[in-house]
Design goal:
The protein is an alpha+beta fold. The chain has 28 helices and 18 strands. The longest helix is centred in the C-terminal third of the chain and has 32 residues.
Length: 679
């Protein structure tokens, strides 16, 4: 029994969910309640104690087991959910190696140190006579209430070279620990001193609420820099974290909207005014990791940066970096805007990107302090990204601009405005730009087409010389016909994580052709796997991709419990050539060696397109099986004692049947094409 199965065997899903959903009541053989993940008036959240699963038949249309519920309700990744549930179940998690355990213990010690430092600074601000100036600044000039100061644990670092150094040395912390935590610095003579002096200390916390660093604001006008952040270290990386996310996570999930501001005090002021879905990017452009983090909870991102020229430049730069970061994993993919101005990239994200433009000279902190009641209205009126791009891109264009000047602007803006698979949206965006630039729409469409062709020609395309096709039997490669579909898909993704884009692209094409079935043709998800161990591995493969790891196995070795990494290695070996498989007594292959040899074997023994097509067929089969099961579940959960469904449920069951037939036909077509090529 795996550790996951052991935990599920010891915990009852009804008891765990009841802790979060007190209104859960027994109704017949199941339990029902209002869904905790979306607002509704009629209970559609159902828990089946027999099968130990849950499902929402309302707006979410999601379901799963105890792990998926904890991950969704708490915003945890799998590792966090595993740790929490293992503690509840009394299951001991096995460490991978002594080295990894020692490193994890070291990180926990640094975490404890930073939490203690945050409390030390906070108590000094609240109680020390020397902190009176800082207290006046926080409460009078910035208008923060005592409960807000407590909630964000705002503190003060006194004007001392050794306040923190002396305090924590007496508690037994080493100089190396204090330095690695970013609390002290070393001069050229090798002497250590406090990094933060006479500054307002704002703790930066991770998603679980633990301090990982500090944003330290200057209190004197001649003090530079204005903000001094903790240095990057093993716990703190400002490109991977968002300030205030630990407090905003639940509100972002409930509103499905995240508002991104620039500064710490912007976030603090918004939360004090009751707007809890606000986070800050801490002075950097949005990164892929940050966007992926928010995309777990929100489908709408609103940028609310400063309105001055520098703020506008930062917004445009952030959008540009966002474009690059969202396409980084697949170099031949561009960001796409659909009819609702939704930015989508390679099937991985579907985000409505908007820009909040405050009155001139106001930043979010100023605006909320002056007009807290108007903030919600400003957020609701945020501009669609395409409109903002046109406004900003043409604002400095004189009314008598030459055709060359107007064409130069068009060349800059068109790549964003026509990066869509929807012809109506493309034409609408071009019409807006044509009107603004006084250039015929047909000319802009021609220019856009030329720019796209130029971009495609400039794209680096790998040329693959396809070897003569041979069969597995003739080449000694292991047959995968005996591997279960879920296990096979995971094995291929461990070798080729970028193949997920291909199958998601196919699902997106089907969704465009069959609009009424779009909700059944979304990108591949953990729900497509029926067994929890494969859901776990799929989550880890996704997380590896979000973290920029080219090899999922490297990420799994470093992040997953031993039981999971061992299983992944076993699955990976099952698709290896017979001569490459290793027994438990052989020397351990490195991940890089294993994956590179597997890929070389694939490309030399097979037509790579044939393997990829087989992967797409099997992955679509997973979705087909999921649709069948969900249709059956709807009958099982919602039918009356006489087996009668409501008209609404019957209509939905009909859609399930249509989606099933569509996928069956698609799989037949792909299989037939594959068989024809083998002849």
């Amino acid at each position: 029994m795996s550790v996951v199965d052991d935990i599920k065997a010891r915990l009852d899903i009804v008891s765990v969910i009841s802790h979060y959903v007190p209104s859960l009541k027994k109704t017949g053989r199941n339990y029902k309640a209002l869904c905790p993940f979306h607002a509704e008036k009629t209970p559609s959240f159902v828990v089946d104690p027999t099968r130990q699963i849950w499902r929402c038949f309302g707006g979410c249309n999601e379901g799963g087991d105890i792990f998926s519920f904890i991950m969704k309700i708490e915003g945890y990744d799998f590792r966090e959910a595993l740790r929490v549930l293992a503690e509840q179940a009394g299951v001991q998690l096995e460490e991978q190696t002594p080295e990894s355990k020692a490193y994890r213990d070291h990180l926990e010690q640094l975490q404890l140190l930073l939490d203690e430092a945050a409390q030390l600074y906070h108590e000094y601000l609240c109680n020390a006579a020397e902190a009176e100036t800082a207290r006046q600044y926080v409460m009078q000039k910035r208008g923060l209430l005592p409960e807000t100061i407590e909630q964000f644990q705002i503190g003060y670092a006194p004007n001392s070279w050794s306040f923190v150094l002396d305090h924590f040395r007496t508690l037994g912390y080493s100089l190396s620990d204090l330095s690695e935590a970013g609390l002290i610095s070393e001069n050229e003579q090798g002497r250590y001193y406090d990094r933060f002096r006479h500054r307002l200390m704002i703790p930066i916390r991770n998603a679980r609420g633990h301090t990982i660093g500090f944003g330290a604001r200057a209190l004197d006008s001649d003090q530079n820099p204005k903000y001094l952040n903790s240095p990057q270290g093993p716990l703190f990386d400002k490109s991977k974290n968002l300030f205030g996310f630990d407090l905003a996570r639940r509100a972002i999930r409930e509103t499905e909207t995240a508002v991104i501001v620039e500064g710490y005090l912007d976030v603090i002021q918004a939360h004090q005014a009751g707007y809890h879905n606000v986070v800050a990017q801490m002075g950097t452009a949005l990164t892929e990791t940050q966007v992926q983090l928010l995309a777990k909870y929100a489908n709408r991102l609103i940028l609310a940066l400063d309105t001055d020229a520098a703020g506008q430049q930062a917004t445009m730069r952030g959008l540009s970096v966002m474009q690059e970061s969202l396409t980084g994993a697949f170099s031949q993919v561009v960001p796409l805007f659909d009819a609702k101005n939704m930015m989508r990239t390679g099937g991985r994200l579907s985000l409505d990107i908007r820009v909040l433009r405050l009155p001139e000279g106001k930043d979010p902190d100023d605006f909320i302090r002056a007009h807290p009641e108007l903030w919600a209205e400003q957020v609701e009126q945020a501009q669609p990204l395409a409109q903002y791009v046109i406004d900003i891109g043409t604002q400095d264009l004189p009314s008598n601009a030459t055709i060359q000047e107007r064409e130069n602007v068009a060349r800059q803006l068109l790549p964003l405005l026509v990066a869509t698979e929807n012809d109506l949206t493309k034409r609408y965006n071009v019409q807006l730009l044509a009107t603004r630039l006084r250039i015929p729409e047909a000319d802009l469409l021609s220019l856009a087409s030329a720019l796209q062709q130029h971009q495609q020609r400039g794209t680096s395309i790998k040329t693959i010389v396809k070897p003569k096709k041979t069969t597995p039997a003739n080449n000694g490669h292991s047959s995968t016909s005996g591997i279960g579909t879920e296990r096979y898909v995971i094995a291929r993704l461990l070798e080729h994580p970028d193949w997920l884009f291909v199958v998601n692209r196919k699902l997106r094409e089907l969704a465009q052709e069959h609009e009424g079935l779009r909700e059944f043709l979304t990108p591949i998800h953990t729900q497509d796997f029926s067994q929890e161990v494969y859901r776990v591995l799929y989550r880890l493969i996704e997380a590896a991709s979000y973290a920029g790891e080219s090899s999922p196995m490297n990420y799994i070795y470093s992040e997953a419990p031993y039981e999971i990494s061992s299983l992944a290695e076993t699955i990976l070996q099952e698709t290896q050539p017979q001569g490459f498989r290793k027994s438990s007594s052989t020397v351990h292959w490195s991940t890089a060696e294993m994956v590179s040899i597997l890929r070389a074997q694939d490309s030399s023994l097979y037509d790579e397109s044939e393997i990829l097509r087989d992967f797409v067929i099997r992955t679509l089969t997973l979705r087909l099986e999921r649709i069948k099961n969900e249709r059956n579940d709807r009958y099982f959960f919602l039918s009356t004692d006489y087996g009668i469904l409501s008209n609404e449920d019957m209509a939905l069951v009909s859609l399930y049947t249509q989606a099933q037939k569509l996928l069956e036909q698609t799989i037949r077509n792909l299989t037939q094409r594959q068989d024809n090529q083998r002849l």
